[in-house]
Each structure stands twice: as C-alpha cells, then as structure tokens.
Recover the amino acids of this structure.
C-alpha cells in the first residue's frame, strides 16, 4: 500500500492518511438536496469523491461509502429561515414532495452513472431516518445543549467550547454569518428540529417529543453517519460551502451527543464556476448533464475535464474547454484502441521493466499526493509517448484508469461523435459543392478544420475524421 496524503480541512494541512481500523475505511459524503435537477457543478464534486474512493480501493483498502439524500429539512437559506426546498418545489409544480424527491434522486444517480462514478454502498435518505434523528436530538438535549424557541429546538453553540474549529474559529464562521431567527440566543445557533407552521399543513412532517415538525438540515448527517459508520469514522467529504455552516454544525451535534470528534479527515472540494461565479441554480448559470449530452458531448469528456484541475482549485467551465477535453479523450481512446489491436507479448528488457515500474510509481505517487489528477493525466500521456512496448502501455493505461475512471477498458471502434454545429457546416458545404460554389465550400472546409476535424471526400460521400 502506498502512502496517501490528503489535505484535512480540520488541520489545514496535508496529512498522511491512516485509517482508524485498517484495512477498513469509512467515508461519508454529503449528498444532494433532491428538489431540482443536479447540475454539472454537483457532478464535479462527486467525481472528486469518486477519485478518492477509487484510489483507496486500488490501494487495497476495504471502503464503506455512505451518502445521504437530503429529501427534507434543507431550507432556502442555509440559515434556519425560508421555506423547505422540497416543499417549495412541490408547491410550485403541483407534485407531491415525495414524488419530487424520488424523481430528482433518480436524475442525480443517472448523471453520476453516466460519469462512471461508483455508487455508494449505502444511500441513506433523511426521511427514512427520522427515528434516528429524533434519538440523537434527545441525546444532545440530555447533555444540555438545546433550547426551545417558538419555531423549533435549537443547538446552543455558546455551550460548545470547540464550536467553529473546522471553519478556523470565530473568524471563519463569520463567512457564513446567519440570518437571525426570532428567539435564537446566538446568531450561530441552529435548528435541530423545526415545528410545522401553525397555519399550514406540510406534506412531510412527523411527531416528536417536542411537537409535530421536521428535522433541521444538519442532524440527518450526524445521525446517519453515526448509524452506518460509527461515532468516529475516517473521512467526511463535501463542497467548500459546507465548511462554515453544515459541517461545523454536524461536528457540534456529534460532539454534543457523544463527546467525541466524529471525523478524522474532512475533505472539501472547490467549485465549478461559470464566468468567475459558482455554478448554482440561484445564479441561473447551470448546465445539466443532459445539456452536455444534447450538445453531442460524451459525459466522460466532462469527467476528463474535471480531472485536469485539482479538486481544491476552482475550475471555470466553458464549452471550449469541454471541446478540448473531448478531443483529448478521443485521442486517448484511439491510442488505446491502436495499442489494444497491436498487442503482442514481448519479453521486456531489464531497462524497460525498470521504466515501467518507474512510470507506475510516478502515477500512484501523483494521485496519492492529495489526489493530484492533473499530474496523473499528464503522466498517462507521457507514458503513451514513451518507448514502453504496446502491450505494457495498454496494461499500464488500464491500471491508471482504475483510479481515473475514464472507462478506457471499454474502448472499441466507435463511430465518431459529430457535434451538431459541425453537422450543419458539413451539410452547408455539401450544398455549396452541389451548386458548384467551390470557393465558398472551401471556406467552410477551413472552418471545419479549425474545429479539429478534417474531411475526406469520396464517391461514397464525405468522411469526417479527427485531426
Ligand atoms: P446541494 O444539492 O446544493 O446540497 O449540493 C450538493 C453538493 O454539490 C454539495 O456538496 C455542494 O457543495 C456541491 N456543489 C454545489 N454547487 C457546486 C458547484 N458549482 N461546484 C462544485 N460543487 C458544487
Ligand atoms: Zn451533510
């Protein structure tokens, strides 16, 4: 097993990863709030988790991966104000809250499947774990951390000495400064249980020792991670937006209940951006995986694009960058195909054997160094250019791909995916040629070549190839 180093948000340092009970590793990932289509920003986050999980599996660990589905309790403001996102979506669309949640959960997994993201071992829905959440709140209450307001049961953050450590203490939490809710003792206090509004019947509500209502957003993750992974487990992942509120509060809840730190390693992924802003539904700058597919991109080219940036750096999404990623992926696949077809067992010289091992080690070290996938991808290309024999290049590429997850084991002679705009240009050019306007047709040929394709005219028609 090679050493794996990960940046732990809790210590702000790159640390050697050591599981609590080797070879087992427990990972909990905060999952989506299923009230609307997941977008490719979400997908970046889960591709990042997938790389981590694949690396651990390839390194010989027995990984147990749990992901929650937030199907209740996430309000329109990350503070405890506003409407429940799922109830709001139900009201707006006239569908039931349960249908909404089911529908978008399945949309989420269909997108992650297309990106070759391994599904979690356990998918835990908040609404299936109300009993566990109530039990945990009761435990926190017994330990003296809660108080009641008109609208719910709140966690008193002033009672927990270590509150806010994940966000870098009091300064860090300011970044997520909350809107005040009437009756809160401290601005950072948060709801564990919210009462159903008196004038309105919610679709999702439950009896509790405190009154009819629904769980606050954070309690589900404490309750379900504890249920499936124990009071202290190895790795918890999320987006950077989770640091000041959701994860800070999750730690408070778990510590309030058990007196123990719940997680050894906190991993946080940076955002996918559009024109310098976070890709987010509220900013109306999102694209779904379906949008990507409709533009004739292979979903795996999106995965390739994500791998070209480090998970702790933001990545600005453009269609041009996705086109480059698709071109690179097509080239990679065609090289793999050529290697697959020209394979024949050769006896390696000592020098080549040494070279192969060197390359293998370089790759493992890169991805084990805080998941440096850009470096890993670069090593893959260098390896393909090297003088290692075809058979071994092919095997190495497939072993790298156990972590990169680009489905390189599935390469076969596939038809070239021709983007819609290119199809239009080809039709236009053909029309001009039929009309005898060869100069104009040539201008279009140049445009096509600028897009990275070339045309071969034959009696049977026009063949399109990649340059
Ligand atoms: P949500 O469904 O809004 O709770 O988000 C699910 C996960 O996706 C969270 O971990 C977010 O941090 C993450 N996420 C949301 N938007 C983006 C984005 N633009 N880039 C990367 N991750 C994101
Ligand atoms: Zn969570």
């Amino acid at each position: 097993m090679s050493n794996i180093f990960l940046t732990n948000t809790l210590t702000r340092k790159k640390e050697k990863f050591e599981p609590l009970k080797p070879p087992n590793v427990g990972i909990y990932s905060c999952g989506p709030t299923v009230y609307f289509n997941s977008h490719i920003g979400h997908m970046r986050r889960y591709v990042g988790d997938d790389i981590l999980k694949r690396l651990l599996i390839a390194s010989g660990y027995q990984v147990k991966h749990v992901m929650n589905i937030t199907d209740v309790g996430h309000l329109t403001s990350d503070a405890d104000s506003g409407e429940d996102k799922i109830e709001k979506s139900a009201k707006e669309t006239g569908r039931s809250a349960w249908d909404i949640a089911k529908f978008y959960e399945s949309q989420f997994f269909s997108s992650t499947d297309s990106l070759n993201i391994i599904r979690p071992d356990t998918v835990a829905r908040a609404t299936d774990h109300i009993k566990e959440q109530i039990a945990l709140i009761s435990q926190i209450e017994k330990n003296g951390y809660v108080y009641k307001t008109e609208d719910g049961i709140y966690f008193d953050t002033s009672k927990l000495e270590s509150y806010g450590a994940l966000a870098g203490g009091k300064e860090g939490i300011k970044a997520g400064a909350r809107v005040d809710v009437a009756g809160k003792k401290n601005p950072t206090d948060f709801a564990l249980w919210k009462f159903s509004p008196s004038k309105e019947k919610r679709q999702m509500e439950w009896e509790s020792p405190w009154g009819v209502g629904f769980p606050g957003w954070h309690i589900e993750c404490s309750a379900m991670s504890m249920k499936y992974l124990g009071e202290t487990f190895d790795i918890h992942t999320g987006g950077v937006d989770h640091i000041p509120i959701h994860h800070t509060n999750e730690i408070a809840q778990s510590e309030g209940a058990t007196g123990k730190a719940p997680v050894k390693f906190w991993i946080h992924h940076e955002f996918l951006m559009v024109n310098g802003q976070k890709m987010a539904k509220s900013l109306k700058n999102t694209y779904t995986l379906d949008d990507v597919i409709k533009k004739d991109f292979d979903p795996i080219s999106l995965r390739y694009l994500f791998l070209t940036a480090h998970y702790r750096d933001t990545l600005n999404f453009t269609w041009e960058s996705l086109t480059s990623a698709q071109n690179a992926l097509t080239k990679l696949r065609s090289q793999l195909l050529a290697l697959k077809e020209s394979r024949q067992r050769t006896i390696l010289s000592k020098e080549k054997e040494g070279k192969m091992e060197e390359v293998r080690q370089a790759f493992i070290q890169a991805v084990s160094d805080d998941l440096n996938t850009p470096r890993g991808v670069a090593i893959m290309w260098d390896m393909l250019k090297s003088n290692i024999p075809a058979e071994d290049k092919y095997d190495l590429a497939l072993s790298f791909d156990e972590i990169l997850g680009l489905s390189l084991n599935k390469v076969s002679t596939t038809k070239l995916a021709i983007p819609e705009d290119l199809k239009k240009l080809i039709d236009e050019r053909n029309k001009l040629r039929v009309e005898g306007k060869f100069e104009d047709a040539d201008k279009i040929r140049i445009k096509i070549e600028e897009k990275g394709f070339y045309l071969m005219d034959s009696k049977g028609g026009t063949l399109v190839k990649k340059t």
In short: The pocket of adenosine monophosphate (ligand 1) is lined by residues 30, 32-33, 41-42, 44-45, 238-239, 241-242, 269, 271-272, 278-280 (CB under 6 Å). The two ends are 41 Å apart (CA to CA).
